[in-house]
UniProtKB/TrEMBL annotation:
Residues 27-38 have a biased composition (Acidic residues). Residues 27-92 are annotated as: Disordered. It comes from the Eukaryota. This is U3-containing 90S pre-ribosomal complex subunit-domain containing protein.
Length: 278
């Protein structure tokens, strides 16, 4: 039953809605009118309607919040999926372009011709696209064994010349280097007669301390006469979502102190040293 009131207490001011129905279908009598809700009952009814509307509004708001959270979750999952695919998974020609862009950031004052002269050719970059596993330290040994068989063979052989490393593994964090060192000591890589594994922290030790450490590990001093591979740890992402080349200090050191060295760059271009992005 729907009754609308226009105001006042007199019966003459009572207005019936067109949709008004009685339970029996008979005409409305005075007793029924007298039993009808009075003006005094209206506030309670209005409050009930307002409460229902408020609950409905809150319910719609909760549904909207759920939708927003679901969309946000999908975006986050998509971003994480993209991040899980390392730049290192790309083919050599794309990696060469990527390294060229990073090199430009390191040598901001160099001309186009100078940068082109320093460019690392894609023929000097290892093709590791056959590796479909994760590029994490837990899989580093398998990664080397399956995608870099020549490096695996060389790591299992003891170097004839002290201070002539076969592999340089470059990472952007000291703790990361310590973890990599532990993995590279795996007997599956080095066998029983493999060479020494030494870790160097460029920003945490003085040069004299490095030299002293190398002597203790029978490495003595470094030369590139036996160097066949340089591995760049680009898959590792730090707490700020940065890889090896996203950090200006490490990016500049890699290109200027390692890859930019005349002898190293010449050996890379000649194919004597292969670059590996892990």
């Amino acid at each position: 039953m729907i009754i609308s009131l226009t105001g006042g207490d007199d019966l003459d001011e009572l207005v019936l809605d067109d949709n008004y129905l009685t339970l029996s279908g008979d005409e409305l009598d005075v007793d029924e009118v007298e039993d009808s809700p009075s003006q005094e009952d209206l506030p309670a009814s209005t409050e009930t309607i307002d409460a229902s509307a408020h609950r409905a509004k809150k319910r719609k708001q909760r549904e909207k919040n759920k939708e927003r959270k679901a969309k946000r979750r999908k975006l986050t999952e998509s971003a994480e999926l993209e991040e899980s695919h390392s730049i290192a998974e790309r083919p050599p020609h794309e990696l060469a372009d990527y390294l060229s862009k990073m090199q430009t950031k390191a040598f901001i004052k160099s001309t186009t011709l100078e940068l082109e002269d320093m460019r690392i050719p894609d023929s000097s970059i290892a093709d590791t696209t056959s590796w479909t596993g994760l590029r994490t330290l837990d899989h580093l040994s398998d990664f080397i064994i399956k995608t870099l068989p020549n490096l695996h063979t060389r790591l299992s052989q003891k170097s004839k010349n002290p201070g002539s490393p076969t592999l340089l593994f470059i990472a952007g964090a000291a703790l990361r280097v310590a973890d990599v060192t532990r993995i590279l000591k795996d007997k599956r890589l080095r066998g029983e007669k493999g060479g020494e594994v030494a870790k160097l922290f460029a920003r945490h030790f003085r040069l004299t301390e490095h030299c002293s450490y190398l002597k203790r590990t029978k490495v003595d001093a470094l030369t590139i006469s036996a160097l066949s591979h340089i591995m760049l740890d680009v898959s590792f992402i730090d707490a700020k979502k940065r890889n090896l080349f996203d950090i200006p200090e490490t990016r500049d050191q890699v290109f200027k102190a390692v890859l930019g060295g005349p002898e190293v760059l010449e050996a890379i271009k000649a194919g004597k040293i292969q670059l590996v992005l892990f």
